[in-house]
Amino acid sequence: MSHRVLVEAGPAAGVAVLKFRNPPVNALSLEMLMELVISLEKLENDKAVRGIVITAENPGIFLAGLDLTEMCGRNPAHYAKYWEAVQELWLRLYQSSKVLVAAINGACPAGGCLASLTCDYRVMADNPKYTIGLNETQLGIIAPFWFKDTLVNTVGHRAAEQALQLGTLFPPAKALQVGIVDQVVPEEQLQSAALSVMAQWLAIPDHARQLTKTMMRKPTVDQLVKQREADIQSFVGLISQDSIQRALQTYLQKLRQKKG
Ligand SMILES: CCCCCCCC/C=C\CC(=O)SCCNC(=O)CCNC(=O)[C@H](O)C(C)(C)COP(=O)(O)OP(=O)(O)OC[C@H]1O[C@@H](n2cnc3c(N)ncnc32)[C@H](O)[C@@H]1OP(=O)(O)O
Fold it and tell me: What are its GO cellular component terms (predicted)?
């Protein structure tokens, strides 16, 4: 039984809707990562499901990215377990044989942006409060190569380099211009727009679309698969550094003080 991930049958045949529900901000905790991986595995094995709309149960925050409390003040074994789960989620999403459409109904920073970038198509609600991007440098950390490659594959090298160096969080119109999202629609039309684009993608025969997707994504997937363990060790080494821990603690404190 999953608490942090809700899977519903969509209104259209062959479509499931996967909703994030991990209050307060849908941060990707270890538990949430594990529940997502299990839910995605079940959907992947369900032949009746051809497409998945991915969204947040409550509008406002799509995904707040990785859970910073999983990366602060823990031990190396925990960091290794956490990073392996982050890798696993990315691999499941990026290699999914289903059509994935992200219906972005809230803030979508860092790991949240990465999750949406693994989808085949992104529709974002036109709300200036919502932003999307890989903002890691703003936290004093570096997006790993497979985060970077996923962005490059979406927007191209130059736009990715600029966005990554500056850690830019784009509001909807700018995100559309850069190509991080494919469509921006009025908030109340988000789900219908996602279902409409899903119908277009499902009009293509599955086997042809799936093989094409695999062909396009395999080089990026292979890069991580062949060095998964080294990538984990690299993450553990970097995240354990005092300077990185201080930077993350400072960022978390700023988030907490925002309210006070
Ligand atoms: C060299 C080092 C190499 C290391 C490699 C690492 C590579 C990858 C690393 C990271 C990728 C990531 O995903 S890092 C996470 C990035 N996420 C963010 O920057 C988002 C931060 N959050 C926000 O901007 C906002 O919270 C929000 C826009 C998502 C929502 O704003 P809102 O005002 O609605 O809510 P609050 O800000 O008041 O937050 C409520 C509550 O939640 C806590 N919170 C928020 N985000 C996170 C998070 N990502 N992880 C854990 N906790 C989070 C926030 O602190 C508040 O907590 P309290 O209620 O206790 O105050």
Answer: mitochondrial matrix
